[in-house]
């Protein structure tokens, strides 16, 4: 309908026919009548004829019967998107100008409209001046284009016209030589990026490319293809001249780039040769008025602001394509932070997030300008190293990363030292696809994890077997608990002064359905890495306490000793779990002693100390089972409330007769000085027992007394123990096999 504006004179039908060419026809398309009326009121004028409608169908019906100079088109309409109207215009070779309006903060909507030739893209709510400027600009551009078309018709075969079009194009037009250096740029470079045209002639195209888009840019700016296979509508960011006239606006400019190869021939019959690349870049001006963040976050990790996996895969695929073309090498590094979960457990997620950002920054500082770093998952990062000469280039970067991580990371309270494990895969020898390279780098990283962490390794084919074994073992471990494949064996702790067994140490065994009994040394490490150790530890405590409750009916002073992994201290509810286990089985806290490795005292004290303090407040004993092999301080023995030191079997094994044993004497002195109980493990001979007894060690365990045995055999040990035969042969204690 024609809007009958009150107080406005309208031409007669005859005048309308004679003046049709001089009127500017505008069609307002929106499903809100009030908005259509307000837009019409803003834009009315004696030289304008304004109509309106509210759907895509009605719009297409109008366009089938008449033409317009300008469509003001809502993006979201009842029957379809406004983009459908623009598609119709393109398919019918129509020249109507379009201003798209949207109530959505959608980067995809803006790009879709601008790619289809929209003159502007406005976000609701918009100001009256904003839409007036947009309409004026679109109509001026249309008039300019109309004038331009007339000029083109008059001068279409003229070199002068060609130069005019190129120089005054709204697109940035350029040509590069075969080495990627500019040999022509139109004047648009100065208004778009602020670079003087003459200053860039002879310079490499990387001078104007945003650093994070350099890898993608290499693919487009080195385009050699022509025709349909050439680069079309690739999105890039170009860097402004930081010293340009518009000093306050130094952010990158988003463009859509088309490029094709240029070929010359010296003679008509000679084959053409590659001379360089021709390209045209159209800016996306509306992206500066819309929040740039939504699009940026689509391709970047919101926490670290690194390129996300989607963008990384895109760059990796481009790098592989270029490497194949140049017969070059690229590397992929898979990086995992060792024991990051402990930081989250101890300091909270906020500190964990801050640590991830710091790690991302430090990794980025170790890389080259053209490398790409992404946060793959949680505490995992993947790096793309394009254009390396050989394996040594990747090794140099890996060494640089390891060196950088020797410096601790600051937290709000104190510092934390983080180690990393890295795996490296090379193209083409380790994989021909992005998926293979990332997977093989991951396999190499897991090999490092299994070998002790804080290192790097290059992928080799034989790692596949190890990796498959690891994955298979992890799967079987997860099923072992539900299938009741774990069992406990017990080894007695004998007191010489009391002539009795004072405790039983619970040792987990895995009865594998096809491999038989599996010792903990073969699966505990895998269980720790896979996060299954907590379930195994809970099972050991529950099963061991249930058995102790049975034994204490006949042997009321008997204690149970159970081992805890350092990873068990990741659990904030550790003491609650143990307390509930003791309560369910009717046991006093003093009847349980928990063994930990001395190395745990050297780890993050903010994580360990509160857990140990809670256990000591509960009344549970704490034993160090390999004391003397590490470097823990004497202060830590009091700080952590240690109740027993166990002399490590390596010191007992090296004992010779009744000679001097300074390490054992020192440990015994420490235990006596701090009023801590002392025990020895690994006692296999009578002279070892006698020497330890003479040095003040009263309690001991080892094969001399008994190997670890199942619960039934352990019950017989308790029942048949003969103190009167201590010190003679097998000391009256049957050494079970």
Automatic annotation (TrEMBL):
Q: Which residues carry this modification: 4-aspartylphosphate?
A: 74
All copies of the GGDEF domain together span: 328-461
Q: Which residues, by range, are in coiled-coil regions?
A: none
* CDD domains xref list: EAL, GGDEF, PAS, REC
Name all EAL domain ranges. 470-722
Q: Which InterPro entries match?
A: Biofilm_reg_signaling, CheY-like_superfamily, EAL_dom, EAL_sf, GGDEF_dom, Nucleotide_cyclase, PAS, PAS-like_dom_sf
SUPFAM superfamilies of this UniProt entry?
CheY-like, EAL domain-like, Nucleotide cyclase, PYP-like sensor domain (PAS domain)
Stretches assigned to the PAS domain: 158-228
| Alphabetic keyword roster | Phosphoprotein
Tell me which SMART domains the record gives. Answer: EAL (SM00052), GGDEF (SM00267), PAS (SM00091), REC (SM00448)
Ranges for domain Response regulatory come to 25-139
Q: Return the PANTHER family for the record.
A: BIOFILM ARCHITECTURE MAINTENANCE PROTEIN MBAA, DIGUANYLATE CYCLASE DGCP
Query: What is this protein called in UniProt?
Result: GGDEF domain-containing protein
Q: Which organism is it from?
A: Zoogloea oryzae
């Amino acid at each position: 309908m024609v809007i009958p504006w009150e107080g406005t004179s309208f031409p007669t039908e005859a005048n309308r026919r004679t003046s049709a060419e001089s009127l500017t026809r505008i069609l307002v398309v929106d499903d809100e009548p009030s908005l259509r009326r307000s837009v019409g009121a803003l834009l009315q004028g004696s030289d304008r004829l304004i109509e309106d409608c509210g759907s895509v169908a009605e719009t297409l019906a109008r366009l089938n019967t008449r033409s317009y100079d300008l469509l003001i088109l809502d993006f979201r309409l009842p029957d379809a998107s406004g983009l459908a109207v623009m598609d119709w215009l393109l398919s019918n070779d129509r020249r109507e100008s379009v201003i798209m309006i949207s109530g959505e903060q959608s980067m995809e909507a803006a790009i879709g409209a601008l790619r289809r030739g929209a003159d502007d893209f406005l976000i609701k709510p918009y100001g009256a001046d904003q839409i007036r400027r947009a309409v004026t600009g679109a109509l001026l551009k249309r008039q300019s284009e109309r004038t331009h078309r007339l000029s083109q018709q008059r001068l279409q075969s003229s070199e002068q016209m060609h130069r005019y079009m190129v120089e005054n194009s709204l697109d940035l037009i350029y040509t590069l030589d075969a080495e990627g250096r500019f040999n022509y740029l139109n004047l648009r470079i100065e208004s778009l990026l602020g670079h003087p045209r003459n200053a860039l002639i002879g310079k490499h195209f990387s001078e104007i490319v945003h650093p994070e888009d350099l890898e993608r840019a290499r693919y487009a700016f080195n385009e050699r293809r022509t025709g349909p296979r050439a680069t079309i509508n690739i999105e890039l960011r170009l860097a402004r001249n930081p010293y340009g006239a518009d000093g306050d606006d130094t952010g990158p400019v988003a463009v859509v780039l088309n490029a094709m190869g240029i070929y010359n021939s010296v003679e008509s019959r000679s084959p053409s040769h590659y001379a360089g690349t021709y390209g045209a870049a159209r800016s996306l001006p509306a992206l500066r008025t819309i929040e740039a963040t939504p699009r940026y976050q689509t391709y970047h990790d919101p926490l670290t602001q690194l390129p996300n996996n989607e963008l990384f895969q895109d760059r990796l695929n481009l790098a592989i394509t270029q490497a194949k073309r140049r017969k070059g090498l690229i590397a992929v590094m898979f990086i995992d932070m060792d024991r990051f979960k402990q930081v989250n457990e101890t300091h909270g997620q906020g500190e964990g997030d801050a640590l991830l950002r710091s790690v991302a920054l430090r990794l980025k500082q170790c890389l080259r300008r053209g490398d790409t770093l992404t946060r793959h998952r949680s505490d995992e990062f993947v790096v793309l190293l394009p254009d390396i000469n050989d394996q040594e280039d990747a090794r140099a970067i890996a060494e640089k990363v390891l060196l950088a991580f020797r410096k601790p990371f600051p937290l709000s309270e104190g510092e934390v030292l983080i180690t990393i494990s890295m795996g490296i895969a090379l193209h083409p020898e380790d994989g021909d696809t992005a998926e293979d390279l990332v997977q093989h780098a991951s396999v190499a990283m897991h090999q490092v994890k299994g070998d002790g962490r804080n290192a790097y390794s290059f992928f080799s084919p034989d790692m596949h077997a190890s990796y498959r074994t690891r994955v298979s073992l992890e799967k079987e471990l997860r099923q072992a608990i539900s299938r009741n494949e774990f069992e406990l064996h017990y080894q007695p702790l004998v007191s010489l002064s009391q002539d009795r067994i004072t405790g039983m140490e619970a040792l987990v065994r895995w009865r594998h359905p096809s491999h038989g009994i599996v010792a903990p040394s073969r699966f505990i490490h895998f269980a720790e890495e896979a996060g299954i150790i907590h379930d195994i530890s809970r099972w050991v405590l529950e099963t061991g306490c249930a058995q102790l409750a049975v034994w204490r009916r006949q042997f009321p002073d008997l204690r149970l000793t159970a081992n805890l992994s350092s990873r068990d201290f990741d659990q904030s509810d550790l003491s609650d779990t143990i307390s509930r286990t003791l309560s369910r089985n009717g046991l006093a806290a003093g009847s349980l002693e928990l063994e930990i490795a001395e190395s745990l005292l050297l780890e993050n004290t903010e994580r360990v100390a509160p857990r140990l303090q809670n256990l000591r407040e509960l009344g549970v004993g704490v034993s160090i089972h390999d004391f003397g092999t590490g470097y823990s301080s004497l202060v830590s023995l009091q700080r952590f409330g240690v109740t027993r030191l166990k002399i490590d079997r390596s010191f007992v094994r090296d004992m010779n007769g009744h000679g001097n044993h300074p390490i054992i004497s020192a440990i015994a002195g420490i235990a006596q000085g701090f009023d801590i109980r002392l025990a020895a493990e690994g006692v296999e001979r009578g002279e070892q027992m006698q020497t330890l007894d003479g040095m003040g060690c009263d309690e001991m365990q080892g094969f001399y007394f008994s190997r670890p045995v199942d619960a039934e055999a352990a019950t017989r040990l308790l029942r048949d123990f003969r103190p009167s035969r201590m010190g003679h042969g097998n000391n009256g204690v049957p050494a079970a096999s």
